[in-house]
């Protein structure tokens, strides 16, 4: 017999985080618990205020609807769910099916916020997929472009994530993967 539970949580943050001019003092969300045939699986639904399109309350109502469908062995409509509910429900369902890897890859992408020469040896020694982040927008566009080009030329299999200091400040033209310009 299938069972489902939805737990609401609120965790105090040690120091308030500022997100889009809003201080976040608690991290709130929902934990989905699915039980079927002696197996238990969990998923997290945690819309982020100021970033997510849905509120915590909306996500909770939608999660309850999906859980009721699941318990009654009816077709779920995850594709129509808001992103946080789709993620939490999908994670729990995949865990229940045994489709998730038994071990996670918790490697962090190194951040280049200064001298790129310090990061190149780290990336060269990185096992598996090589990923890095670069903050752009602090200096002239030409300098930022040169650093991006340096990384991509030095490490051809690198996946590079640009982190604009001001969101939307940079765009990537379709003509070249190495050329960026300021809006």
UniProtKB/TrEMBL annotation:
Where does the signal peptide begin and end? none
Q: Which UniProt keywords apply?
A: Lyase, Magnesium, Metal-binding
Q: What name has this protein been given in UniProt?
A: o-succinylbenzoate synthase
GO molecular-function terms, A-Z = O-succinylbenzoate synthase activity
Any idea of its EC number?
A: 4.2.1.113
Question: Please, which domain of life does this record's source organism belong to?
Answer: Bacteria
- Kindly give the Pfam families that the UniProt entry links to this protein: MenC_N
The main enzyme category here is lyase
Q: Where is the OSBS enolase-like N-terminal domain?
A: 1-96
What SUPFAM superfamilies does UniProt report for this protein, alphabetically? Enolase C-terminal domain-like, Enolase N-terminal domain-like
